[in-house]
Structures are given as C-alpha cells and as structure tokens.
C-alpha cells in the first residue's frame, strides 16, 4: 500500500473526459481508463454531452472555430465538481496551458478556464499524484518499451512516473527506448499536411522501437498511438502500440486480487 | 532628425511609447547587474581578489584540472628553475627558431630569456616601441606571425573554465598569444579566480575607475574547430598547442 | 540574402531523400544536442541561470531604446563610430562606401548571421574587394557558393569528401579522402596569408555591453581574435537586439550561450573589444565601427506576442533539439535563420505569406522551448503565426489558408458543437469506411486526411462511441 502521508487526500469520485479521439476512434482506451479508476476505488461519471477540447482547430490556427468548442467544453465541465481525468496529455495541456491564450480577449473566460483547469488531470498524472506510482500491482507477461509523448512530458511534466508504474507489473519486461523523449512526428494536422516530414521523424522512432526487440509499445496519448501503430502496420511489423491504461487494466485482470483498492 | 534619433524613435514607438523610458532600479527579477551601485561593485571586486588570495592553493588545483579538460598541457613547476627547464624542453621539442614573449614579471623571475636562448632560439619581447606608425604596427605583426612560440604570464586565470585572461597593453601584444603555433602561459599561485563572476566583477570595477584595457582575451585551450563532419580538430587559426606552467 | 522560403516543401522533400545529408544531420543530435545535455547536467544551477538570462534579455528588450542610446554614447566616447542601418541594403552600402574611402583591398569576415542578411561577402566581392570568410564552416560554404546550414555549424551538411573537393587543390575523384585534421591544416595555411594582408574586417557581435560600449565575441578557432586585431579597420555588425546592460551580465550570458550551443564550459576564445587600438598598444585596428541594424526587427518588437523572439542568443540549441530540423536541414527554411527560431522570425522579417509553411513545419513537441538557454516559448509563437496564416488575424492579406480548409474547420466546429451530431458524424464515417478497412485499419484514408495514408495505415472510426459503451456497461452493472 502506498504511504498516504505523501499524497493529497484521495478523491472517491471523478468525471471522465474521454477526448474526441478516444470517444469515437478508440473507445476501448476509455473503458480501460474507467476500469483502472474503479479499481482504485473511484466512481467515474461521464458527461454525455462532451465532444472535444478544441485543440485540433487551435493548433491549426483556426481560433475562431476552436473558441466556441472550447467555451462549450468549459460550460459543460464547470458544472461538475471534483477532479476531471483525461487519458491524454495533449488535451490536458490544451485546457491548462492554451485556453488562457485562446480566451485572452475575455478575462472572464480565462478565469473560468483556469478554475476548470485546476481540477483537470491527465490519467497517469492523476494516479501518480493521488495514489502513488506503486498503486497498481498487477501481472502481465510481455516485453514492452515506453514512448514519452511530448505534451505529457513537456506541458504536464510527467516523465518517469509511468515507467515506475509499469515497473510494478509482474512479468512485464520493460526495455528502455533509445531517444524515448524524441517526438514521434504526429503533431496533429502536421501529420497530414506534411506527411513526408512527419513520416521521416516517425521512421527514426520506429527504428528505435524495433531495436528494443519489444512486442509492445506503451504510450499515453492516442495521436501518438495512431501514428506509431499506423507506421508499424505499414512496415508489416507485428509490434502492438497500446495505451498505458490498457496495460494497467489488463495487468489487474491477471491477478487474483481483482477487488478494488479499499 | 539625425539617423540616430530616427532609429531610436522608431524603437521607442515600437515599444508603444512616445519618449524613452529610463529604467529605474528594479527588483531582482530583472536579472541584470546594471543597477548595482559603485560600492557594491567595488565590494564584489574586492571579494574576488580576497578569495583568490585566501584560496590560492585550492583554486590552483581546480585550475590545473579544468585547464587540462580544456586542452591545455598542464605542467607543475616546483620552482623557477623547473619552470625555465620546462620552457627550454618545449622549445627544443618544437625546434623553435624564434620565440616572442610578453613583459609579465614572472617571466623574468624564472629567467626565461636564458632558458630560451640556451636552446639556440632567439627571444624577442613585445615591448612598445613608443612609436605609433603603421610601419611599426606591420613590423609587430610580422614578428608575431613568424614566431614559433609565444610566452606570456597570466593577468588572471579562471578555475571554472580553465581560462587564462590577458589584457593586451604595452608589453603584452594581442598576437603573442595568438599567432605562434605554440603558446606557453606561466601562472603563479594567487592568479586564479573562482569563476567568470569574479572576472567580470573585476573588469566592471576597472571600468568604473576608468581603467578598462582596450580589449580582453579569455583563452581556454588550443584553437579548435568541429566544422568538418562534426569531428573536433585541434589547431586552426590560433595556436595548435598550449602549455600552462603552474609555478608553485 | 534573398528569401527562398517559398521553396520550403520541395527543398524539405529533396533533403529527406538525401542519404548523405541525413547522415550528416545525425551529428547535430549526437554532438551538439547531447553536448548541451551533458553540460547542463554538469552545471548545478543551470535552470536558475536560464531564468536569470531570460530576465536580463526581457528587461533589455523592454528598454531597448534606452540601452541603444547608452551603447552608442559609450562606443563614441571610446573613439568608435556607430552607424544606424534601417535595413540590410543601407548597412551594406555603408560598409562598402567605408571600404572604398579607406582604400581597402582585402576584407576578412568572422561569422555573422546579420552579415548574411546583408549578403555582404558576395556584395563586397562584386565591388572588387577580396572578401574572405575566416570561420572554417563559413569558408567552406563560401567556396561552395552556398548559404549557412546551421546557426553555428554552417557546413554541417558537407561530407569530408565535399570539403576535400573545395579545400584541397590536389584532390581528384577517386583519391583517398584526407582526414579532418589534414583538411583543417590546409585551411589554416590558406587563411594565414589572408590574415597577414587583410586591411579591413567585418565581424559579428555576440553581446554588446551598453554600460561600457564594448562588444564580446565567442569563437573556438581564433578568427574572432585575428579579425579584431590584424586589419586597420574593424567593422562590427549587430542586430539591434544583441545588447546586455552590464559587463557583469556577461558571466551569466556566456555560461548559458556556450553550454547551449556546443556543450563546452566555455569557447576557446572570448574576446571583448572596448575600443580600437589604444596608444599603448602596438597592434590592433586604427578604427572601430559598429553597425546597428534594424532590418524588420521593429516588427517583432512592436508585437507583444512576438517580442520574446528578440531574446534569442543565436546559439542553435533549438535547431539541435528539433526533430523536424534534424530531418529537413537548414536550406529548406529558405533564409538566414533555420530551425524553430527561424520559423518564427523569418516569416515576420521577410514576409509571412511566402513563408507560411515555416510555422506549420512543426509537431509542436516543445523540445525547442526546453532547449532554449533563455526559455523562449517558441511553440506559443508558432501557434500565433499559424493563427495569422489560417485566419488572417492581423490582416486578411496574411491569410494563406484555402477556402476548402476554412470550410472544413467550419464543418468540424459544427460537428463538435453538439453530442448528437458528433455521434452521428462518427457513425456515418464508421459505416462508410468499414468496407475499406482491414482489422480496423485503412490503407487509404479519405480527404481531408488522405495525406496520412501515403506512409501509414489510418485507424477506423469505432462502430460505437465510448458514451454508448459506458451506458451499456452501466445497464449491465445495475441490479
């Protein structure tokens, strides 16, 4: 059990923000996220009206389109109390770091965004902060390597915590990834608008992945996951790219201790 | 309006102002030392020198280490004769024909002239002729470019970075430590400052007192470049080989 | 230098295919990038130094007019001359006129990106002055008639064989290629006689110190010392932002500049010039001229969003950290400044419309921000410029987005403004794409994302959303 004196008081209820990509393209990641949170003894609410945080349009420079979508996000999520958890570092970064930029002409919106942002956490950040990196001890026989998604690393500041979490899973043979903190080349619309450059950056990442000999790549952001999996498939590689929520959840199923933490 | 006034006015307007706003003494968050008062500046300089004296042997040891890391050939001489002997050895090894030196006191103290001439090389001193003609300048340049070895003392050294500090002036030319293929610098205990902070504290105090030299050279190893395939090569426009002789 | 930013895509594409350049660009990571990390790790208060450096630059730029006045007064007090150049053409003309007036024959240059903005070496050679670059990397690309590939390693893209062909008069195709040491010695020999006969130099400025009217130059080769010593006329050129207030500030700035640039604790030479040859010196220039250039920097200064870019020390750390730069190299950026810093200043200095690709050539990974010695938030400014090109936020004439693209994002917005339409759109996409997919992945994605599948498989939209799945799960769980 983790030492509770070093962590802030544990919430027993959170609201899940899926992110548009998890919601409509990779919903299994959302389900595994819920599994992990419930294992930790947390009740998970889902706001039916949620769509997107607005990042794709904002990053492409279309702020007039991003603005109403982001405002709608705030309106929706400011109605709930308690922590909001999202399995995406880039969405968390958008709300916490970029909403102030987007809303900069309207100080009221900036304030409202800040209030929501203070209770919004990326998944691994949330677990690490409130439960500690040893909170989930499961079992999963696999060889894997961990890619450090850029926004989670540089905007949210989560670096080694996920690696530590994964080290607590029995049977999971982790090999460090060479240049783990170098971008996979996704970058949202960049991956589509400049596909040759995006793929050149990806190729280096995939070469480093293949060099580890791992069967699995673990990451924490779906954009990166699609970029890497899409590239590996195109190479004819059998390497699977999965979200860390999937690994954590699957490791729990494999242990006899399937009851929740408390 | 003069060109200058127009240019500055343009900058002022770009900053959203009509007149130049003089910055007043700010809080520490502006980072610059520009608002330190003269007493503070003098105190920093005094502290730098006191530190150099008090910790002389520790700083000399640190300098030996950092200078070696920076690419100096570091030699420790137990006494002036040893130092002279080391210099003579270098002259012989390099087959030096002509040697040029500065007028740093330490050089005459170790008897450098005899040491050099004993190897068959000639030794010239970068004394100022008293003239300022361009002919004299050309002659000075030619002498430096044709010298095989340049020998100086040090004005300061910096332990943080393995640096020898020289202030070109009468008796210490700019080229004596630059043009010859080999440079030898002789350092005495007490010459070494802790870091760049101390050096610039001293320079700044000199400036306040109107005593700043015309130029300043920080030398941290032999000249080098990595412009070809990222391979570091020692020896391009400055000396190929530099020696630091630490006199105990 | 004439901007070629409009050729970005083609140049990037051809560089990606050039195996030799890709190999050369590895040095940027293994040498410079890892060098900086090691040096930063070795410096206990590294982050505090960066914070301090940022504070010094923020303050200086916020009072740039004041410090320019102070710098000018002090340079003139020391006997130097200051020329204010509104643009590159004015600066170039002034320097060429000066060379004529002083009967100059041979001009030596040390590295200066500002002089590249002026295309100075080429212009002076055209005017009949023998003008030679003395920094080895600059010398190599001068011989190759190219522009710099990197801020501090101009010839980083050249192989040893490339260099041999340029430097070694005796080298023929098929000969064994001389090693780097041999080639460097050839350059030393060639340039030695140039140093001896040069009568004018043009150098850059790493830092101009306002309180004393001094300039500081950082070099490893010794050419920074040669150029400021041997000729009778010394001209230093600087962008108007390259000022620090005090001599004492140099200790902080030199630490963060040099460790970030190459990973060295200090460059081999740091040269501070306070005035031209003093009467008690027997070498040194007779005259010191400082050319302070604007060339569009006022546009960066005037825009509070872009002003921070003027804090740049030109160390190249952002280039070394950038996964895009490391693949497309320096020439793709089309002007003097490549990499992340180039992506934000080149468009403003040379015209956003032609350079609109530059702020978009980024995955927004943030490595540049992490690497910057003065913590410049480059991603924030990339996003700012994207807003300008996408929607013409500061003027419709800057908008480069196509009608289709604007409509697509309009549709995206509509789709995101309600859950039912969000679900509906996703389910339609899922149904339409399913027949084309294999194991949940598409080999050919539809527009607007068709660019993806040129090199990667694209994931299929799910048949049921997370919302639907969680509802089903809840219904199952309820007793």
Oligomer: heterotrimer
CATH homologous superfamily annotation of chain B: NagB/RpiA/CoA transferase-like
Termini distance of chain B?
62 Å
Q: What is the beta-strand fraction of chain B? A: 15-25%
Q: Can you walk me through this structure?
A:
The complex is a heterotrimer of chains A (262), B (248) and C (479). Chain A has two domains: 11-128, Rossmann fold, CATH 3.40.50; 134-253, 3-Layer(aba) Sandwich (Rossmann fold). Helix content of chain A is 50%, strand content 13%. Chain A has 13 helices and eight strands. The radius of gyration of chain A is 18 Å and the shape is globular. Chain B has a single domain, classed as NagB/RpiA/CoA transferase-like (Rossmann fold), CATH 3.40.50. In chain B, a hairpin with a 2-residue loop joins strand 10 (224-228) and strand 11. Chain B is globular. Chain B starts with a helix and ends with a strand. The longest helix of chain C has 24 residues, at 19-42. A six-stranded parallel β-sheet of chain C has the order 1-10-7-4-2-3, sandwiched between helices. In chain C, strands 8-5-6-9 form a four-stranded mixed β-sheet, sandwiched between helices. Chain C has a domain at 403-477. Helix content of chain C is 49%, strand content 11%. The radius of gyration of chain C is 26 Å and the shape is elongated. Classes of the chains: A alpha/beta (262), B alpha/beta (248), C alpha/beta (479). Chains in contact: A-C, B-C.
């Amino acid at each position: 059990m983790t030492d509770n004196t070093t962590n802030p008081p544990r919430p027993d209820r959170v609201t899940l923000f899926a992110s548009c990509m998890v919601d409509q393209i990779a919903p299994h990641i959302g389900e595994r996220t819920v599994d992990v949170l419930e294992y930790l003894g947390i009740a998970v609410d889902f706001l039916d009206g949620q769509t997107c945080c607005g990042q794709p349009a904002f990053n492409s420079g279309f702020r007039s389109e991003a603005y109403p979508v982001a405002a709608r996000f705030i309106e929706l999520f400011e109605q709930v109390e308690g922590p909001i958890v999202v399995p995406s570092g880039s969405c968390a970064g958008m709300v916490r770091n970029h909403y102030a930029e987007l809303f900069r002409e309207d100080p009221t919106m900036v304030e409202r965004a800040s209030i929501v942002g203070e209770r919004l956490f990326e998944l691994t950040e949330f677990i690490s902060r409130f439960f500690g990196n040893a909170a989930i001890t499961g079992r999963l026989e696999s060889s894997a390597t961990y890619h450090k998604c850029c926004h989670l690393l540089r905007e949210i500041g989560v670096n080694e915590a996920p690696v530590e979490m994964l080290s607590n899973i029995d049977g999971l043979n982790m090999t460090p990834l060479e240049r783990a903190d170098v971008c996979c080349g996704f970058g949202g619309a960049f991956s589509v608008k400049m596909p040759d450059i995006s793929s050149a950056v990806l190729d280096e990442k995939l070469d480093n992945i293949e060099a580890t000999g791992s069967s699995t790549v673990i990451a924490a952001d779906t954009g990166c996951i699609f970029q890497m999996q899409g590239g590996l498939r195109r190479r004819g590689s059998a390497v699977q790219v999965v979200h860390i929520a999937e690994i954590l959840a699957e490791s729990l199923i494999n242990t006899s201790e399937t009851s929740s933490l408390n | 309006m003069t060109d200058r006034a127009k240019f500055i006015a343009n900058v002022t307007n770009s900053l959203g102002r009509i007149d130049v706003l003089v910055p007043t003494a700010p809080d520490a968050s502006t980072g610059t030392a520009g608002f330190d008062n003269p007493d503070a500046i003098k105190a920093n300089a005094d502290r730098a020198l006191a530190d150099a004296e008090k910790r002389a042997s520790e700083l000399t040891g640190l300098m030996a280490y950092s200078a070696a890391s920076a690419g100096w050939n570091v030699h420790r001489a137990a006494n002036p004769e040893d130092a002279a002997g080391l210099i003579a050895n270098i002259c012989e090894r390099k087959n030096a024909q002509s040697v040029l030196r500065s007028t740093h006191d330490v050089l005459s103290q170790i008897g450098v002239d005899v040491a050099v001439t004993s190897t068959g090389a000639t030794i010239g001193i970068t004394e100022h002729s008293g003239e300022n003609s361009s002919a004299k300048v050309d002659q000075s340049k030619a002498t430096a470019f044709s010298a095989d070895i340049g020998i100086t003392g040090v004005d300061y050294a910096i332990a943080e970075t393995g640096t020898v500090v020289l202030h070109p002036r009468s008796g210490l030319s700019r080229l004596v430590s630059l043009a010859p293929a080999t440079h030898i610098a002789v350092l005495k205990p007490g010459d070494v400052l802790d870091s760049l902070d101390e050096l610039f504290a001293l320079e700044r105090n000199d400036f306040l007192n109107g005593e700043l030299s015309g130029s300043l050279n920080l030398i941290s190893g032999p000249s080098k470049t990595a412009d070809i395939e990222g391979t570091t090569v020692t020896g391009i426009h400055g000396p190929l080989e530099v020696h630091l002789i630490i006199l105990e | 230098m004439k901007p070629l930013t409009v050729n970005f895509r083609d140049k990037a594409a051809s560089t990606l295919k050039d195996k030799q350049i890709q190999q050369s660009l590895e040095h940027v990571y293994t040498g410079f990038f890892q060098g900086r990390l090691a040096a930063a790790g070795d410096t206990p208060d590294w982050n505090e130094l960066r914070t301090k450096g940022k504070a010094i630059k923020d303050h200086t730029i916020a009072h740039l007019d004041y410090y320019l006045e102070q710098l000018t007064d002090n340079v003139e007090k020391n006997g130097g001359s200051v020329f204010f150049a509104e643009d590159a053409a004015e600066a170039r003309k002034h320097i060429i006129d000066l060379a004529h007036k002083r009967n100059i024959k041979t001009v030596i240059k040390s590295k200066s990106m500002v002089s590249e903005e002026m295309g100075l070496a080429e212009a002076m050679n055209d005017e009949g002055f023998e003008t030679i670059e003395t920094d080895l990397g600059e010398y190599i690309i001068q011989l190759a008639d190219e522009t710099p590939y990197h801020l501090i390693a101009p010839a980083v893209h050249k192989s040893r064989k490339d260099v041999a062909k340029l430097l070694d008069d005796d080298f023929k195709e098929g000969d064994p290629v001389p090693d780097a040491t041999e080639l460097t010695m050839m350059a030393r020999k060639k340039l030695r006689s140039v140093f001896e006969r040069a009568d004018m130099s043009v150098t850059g400025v790493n830092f101009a110190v306002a309180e004393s009217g001094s300039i500081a130059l950082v070099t490893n080769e010794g050419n920074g010392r040669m150029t400021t010593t041997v000729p009778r006329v010394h001209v230093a050129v600087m962008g108007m932002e390259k000022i620090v207030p005090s001599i004492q500030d140099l200790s902080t700035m030199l630490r963060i500049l040099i460790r970030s640039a190459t990973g060295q604790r200090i460059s081999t030479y740091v040269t501070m010039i306070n005035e031209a040859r003093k009467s008690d010196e027997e070498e040194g220039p007779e005259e010191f001229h400082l050319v302070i250039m604007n060339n569009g920097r006022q546009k960066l200064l005037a825009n509070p969003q872009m002003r921070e870019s003027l804090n740049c020390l030109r160390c190249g750390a952002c280039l070394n950290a950038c996964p895009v730069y490391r693949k497309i190299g320096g020439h793709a950026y089309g002007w003097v400044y490549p990499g992340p810093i180039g992506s934000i200043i080149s468009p403003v200095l040379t015209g956003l419309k032609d350079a609109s690709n530059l702020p978009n050539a980024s995955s927004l990974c943030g490595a540049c921000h992490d690497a910057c010695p003065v913590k410049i938030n480059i991603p924030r400014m990339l996003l700012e410029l994207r807003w300008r090109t996408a929607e013409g936020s500061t003027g419709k004439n800057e908008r480069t987005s196509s009608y289709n693209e604007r409509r697509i994002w309009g549709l995206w917005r509509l789709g995101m403004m309600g859950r039912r339409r969000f679900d509906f759109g996703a389910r339609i996409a899922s149904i339409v794409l399913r027949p084309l997919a294999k194991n949940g992945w598409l080999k050919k994605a539809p527009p607007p994302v068709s660019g993806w599948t040129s090199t990667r498989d694209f994931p299929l939209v799910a048949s049921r959303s997370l919302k639907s799945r969680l509802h089903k799960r809840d219904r199952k769980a309820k007793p």
